[in-house]
Structures are given as structure tokens and as C-alpha cells.
Amino acid sequence: MEESSGGREKRRYPRVLINLPIEYQDMGDSNLRGAMVVNAGVGGFLMECTRNIPVGTRLKVTLLFSRGFELADFEAVTQVVRKEPHRKEDPEGNLRWEGYRYGLEFLQVLEEDRWKLTWLLGGQSESEDLIRALFSQL
After folding, report:
1. N- to C-terminal Cα distance for the chain?
2. Up-side HSE of residue 19: CA atoms within 13 Å toward CB?
């Protein structure tokens, strides 16, 4: 997480470090491509891939993760809001991978997928508390 000089958080939403595969496609394009998500928050993902994608591009994404003994997914429509060149090297300094890091902001997320994201980010107890509060009002 980024902090300002006063020690306060700059981000609107805290981030969780993850390393999960993601499928994405440009809106209006049928080609599926793969990448990795390296951190996530309720506002979006940080994605690494080799493809050069312009800032402002809208992507339909599907994040794949295990939930217990099942394979689950999270779907959303996102927009590329940040782009920076990125490279990974092995401990000896040899280039292993070169591409980009993209900040993806969520534009559309189904309610069911918001629950999945909350669970994935470690907020299982927050979700359970919210469900209890909603049902207690009925």
C-alpha cells in the first residue's frame, strides 16, 4: 500500500497481494487472453501481462481462484486507468519476463461477484456480519 509522507494511506481501497490467473478480452473482441493479477482491492486489480494495452481500454475480465475444493471465478468489466513498463529478472539479474503492469478499475460487477471478491480479499467475517444485519431487519 502506498503512504503519503504523513503516514496516511493514499489509496481509496486497501490492496491485498495475490498471484492469480486472469482471462481478459477487449470489449467487443472475442479473443481471450491470459495474464496475472498481483494485487487486488474492492476498487480494482493490478494486472501484469506482455500485451501493450492503451490506457482507457475497457476489458471484460475473469479472475480464477480456488474456493475450498472448487474452482471459482470473479467477472467484471474494467477500465485500464494506469500503465507502466515492467520486467522480472531472476536472482542473477537475467531477464525472465518483460511487459506491463496495468491498474484496472472496476466499472461493472454483479452483486454475486462482489461477494466473491470480498471473500477472496479475506473479508469472510465482514460478509457474514453484513448478511446477518440484512436478515435481522426483515
Report:
1. 38
2. 0
Instruction: Say if residues 97 and 88 touch (Cβ distance below 8 Å).
Output: yes
Cα dihedral 63→122→113→3 (10° resolution): -80
pTM: 0.77
DSSP 9: B
CATH homologous superfamily of 16-110: predicted glycosyltransferase like domains (2.40.10.220)
Domains of the chain, by residue range, sit at 16-110
Of 70 and 42, the structure prediction assigns the larger pLDDT to 42
pLDDT reading at 127 higher than 70: no
Give 44-100 as a DSSP string.
EEEEEESS---TT-EEEEEEEEEETTEEEEEEEEEEEEEEEEEEEE-TTS-EEEEEE
Is-contact 48 100, C-beta < 8 A? Answer: yes
